[in-house]
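Lay summary. Proteins are chains of building blocks that fold into shapes, and those shapes determine what they do. In this project we predict the shape from the chain. Here is one chain we studied, written as its sequence of building blocks.
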Amino acid sequence: MFCPKCGKENDDNAVFCRYCGAKMSQDNTISFEQLNGGDNGFNSLSRLESESKSVHLLSILAIIFCALGSFWGLIFAIITSNKVNALNTINFMPKDVKHIDEYEALREKVKKSGKLAKISYIVFIVATVIQLAVIVILQYNGIDVYSFLGFYNN
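And here is the predicted shape, written in a compact code that computers can read:
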């Protein structure tokens, strides 16, 4: 249950908030105004919007770099997954009806970014396997890939 005053999460059967001491109610929804006053890290719709944009950009970069077989893509995918998990911990519905559609659209964008991050893991694995297969095939056909790439100077 969320505190109606500070917005922090408490036990479901709490009578008073363990952070600010306010009386808890059975209604655990938090308005955007209450979130703006809270210090939970994601304190407004605009903050959620900017976080969802950055996580979406990271997920796209992850797929691009993973397709190239780069470990940067894997790093972007890990960061994206962690940010998506953090954004998914925000579990509130606004009491102000005019913000519900906007909130739901942002939630869908975050969900899509999470799916893109999972896809980037798969793309990374496939790209890495293809690269290794090409190296093995070239080595099998007598082409010294490493000296061709300049790793050995004979």
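What the prediction tells us: DSSP finds five helices and no strands in the chain.
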